[in-house]
Hints:
One of its GO terms (molecular function) is glycogen phosphorylase activity. Its cofactor is pyridoxal 5'-phosphate. Strands 1, 2, 5, 6, 9, 10, 11, 12, 16 and 17 form a ten-stranded mixed sheet that branches. A six-stranded parallel sheet has the order 20-19-18-21-22-23, with helices on both faces. The protein is built from 34 helices and 23 strands. Among the domains are: 1-68 and 89-117, no CATH class; 489-704 and 761-801, Rossmann fold (3-Layer(aba) Sandwich). The protein starts with 14 loop residues before the first helix and ends in a 9-residue tail after the last helix. It is an alpha/beta fold. Helix 12 (333-342) crosses helix 15 (385-405) and helix 14 (377-383) crosses helix 15 (385-405). Residues 1-11 have low confidence and may be disordered.
Amino acid sequence: MNDMTPPVAAREHTVESFTREFLRELNFGRGVDLDRASANDKYMALARTVRHYLMTGWLETLRNQYRDQAKVVAYLSAEFLLGRQLDNNLLTSNLEGIARESLDQLGISLDDLREVEIEPGLGNGGLGRLAACFIDSLATLDVPCIGYGIRYEYGIFKQAFVDGHQVEKPDTWLALGSPWEFPHPENAVTVGFGGHVEDVTDEDGVKRRDWVPASVVNGVPYNYMVPGYGTNRVNTLRLWSARAPKAFNLQVFNEGGYEEAVKNQTFAENISKVLYPEDSTPQGKELRLQQQYFFVACSIADFLCNVLPQDFDLHRLPDRITWQLNDTHPVIAVPELMRQLVDLRGWTWEDAWGVTQKVFAYTCHTLLPEALEVWPVDLLGKLLPRHLEIIYRINELFLEELRDTYPGDELKVRHMSIIAEHPVRAVRMAHLATVAGFKVNGVAALHSELLRDKVLSDFAQLWPEKFTNVTNGVTPRRFVRIANPSMSGLVTEAIGDGWIKDLSQLSRLEPLAEDAEFRRRFRDIKAANKVEFARVLKERDGIEIAGDAMVDAMVKRLHEYKRQTLKLLHIVSLYQRIGSGALPLESVTPRTFVFGAKAAPGYALAKQIIALINAVGSTINADASLEGRLKVAFPANYNVTLAEKLIPAADLSEQISLAGKEASGTGNMKFALNGALTIGTDDGANVEIRELVGDENFFLFGMSEPEVADLEASGYSPEAVYASDPDLKAAIDLISSGAFSGGDRTLHEPVIAALLGEDRFMALADFRSYVDAQDRVEAYYGDFEAWSRSAILNVARSGFFSSDRSMVDYMDRIWGAKPVKQNF
């Protein structure tokens, strides 16, 4: 290329130009010719070619944003579960057809190169997947946004099973490099830890507090492009990697102190090594807090110093940014901004607090008290002494306000305090976020109601205007258009392709649910998706399933409140009833139960539940008397890539958490949008799904949230439920007998003990209702025309669950940000 060759994005997109760019990248970027290139060489060259076509839009977006200074949403999240990037970037750049034809001419399969990409495991589940959906939608809606997070070197662990038990292995997603990231070590940010705080007097005679850290690390930004669909906007995701300022001591090394010579490097790099380090030890807790402070300190300094113009008046900061706190992980950003303004810029406390309360908004993602983070003051004071002082001052002023508002009600004051006194003195991060934030939102209608009425009820009474709801959504680009191309093609043929940016247009499919030919084509696509999923499972995991059985899917983080145990009890009950002759085998619809779940490394009971699921699966799958009618598939290391194969194949979506415990869920939305029917409780976003798709197209079971509360209040006895239900008793007794553990009656005892003892999330209480609902599933599935009609109506009526709609709601109810079109 000579200097007069125009940039690739300025030229016409043709197969010929794409081929030239691909071969140029292969030759000069990878240093190989086509004949000697490995699969990874070809993938890297392809990825870098695609990113060239996006970069002009990205650079122009950055230039326009700096010039126009429009309001920005800064999405602070400890997780961004992105999935593979190639397909999404081919879609947004409109290059898939050109790339496929170009590679075909070179004798290369695009589909083969897709399989080379390793997805970054930068999230654990719904929280990270939601963050990825949101930044995708903001770009598609032309809203200026920066996503801020951590570039975990190993991300979430790679799950393996050894004798059915979960084993955590490093997820080496960076082993072969990432073509989508742009490192900028020259823009590194310095972050301190530990040390002490002292009084100083500046040159103007003003006294202030000065933090003297004991150690510092550098945060190196890695930028990722976030292209919008059908627009020229390309926003930025900025992930921080921890590095030591002085990583290597040559003198110590030469003296033989090899480990000591790299001590600083080890300390620094541990911070961004692994997502959610196991925190059952004091060291693990400290590392988690280090991670949280590290990425928000980097992000705030980056925005104030590198994104804003040097002469920007920070008193106008609320006009330029909203920092959205995605759960409690980033809440330490509140005292960090105060430190930046008061300590480093000499602001008065009143001015700094006035600005701080206008720039933070808080999304709560839980109803479980144990999931609302608290940090012991001893740990926080040790690691971030100045921040603890600032939090104490915020709380002091807040308590004064409470005592003025509620004179004499010291119990309420203590209950609302940011500082908890028992069982140890600790900072309640959700309380801090609520006091500092100008808005607090839940993520589904029921969740937001319970947040206002129960979890943060005192705060909602004090500041009712702060509380709002934004129901979650998912991006239709990845989870319909990319994941389910055949169904997407059928939908586009029927109503055009406008639905990809306006998912409400799916409602135009509703009349086609009555069209027998459309139902047949829809069924054929579902059947083909099942065959494809069966192929992937066999190649990926060595798991063989029937390509024509009902696919019954329960994929989510392994937690007791998600109630994987309830699903398992149903499976064991079916197996027991068939074995005893109570249920004729010929009456059972062939069904594949698919589990996908990781347990937190320190969550012992969750790991025991995984082992039990695998043990039951091994026994059932090996039982020839079942004639293959029941099958349990639990592929290890469930991720976005596998989700994109399972979700289009699924017939039944299991959303069976105890009512009042799930904040929202997003898997429930993905399955409905791809034509699966839901069996679920009235919990989280299930409530809204059922209301929209219709009771007749949703299998509701279980107690309502008020009924759960009543049963808790009256005294719940799982032993009594067990004794009163013969099917439940038989299923539990079969597990206890050692039938799934080679006769060992003790192996799975912890799971049984948890169910018969406390049964915290009332799996036994909802068992009978759940089994009855599954019987309705069985009967309805036998009427393939009725099932197909319901499946199509689920798709047609689920357009509300687009993350594009969620983002519009955030803009209207919280951020006040506006779309800014990119015309170039």
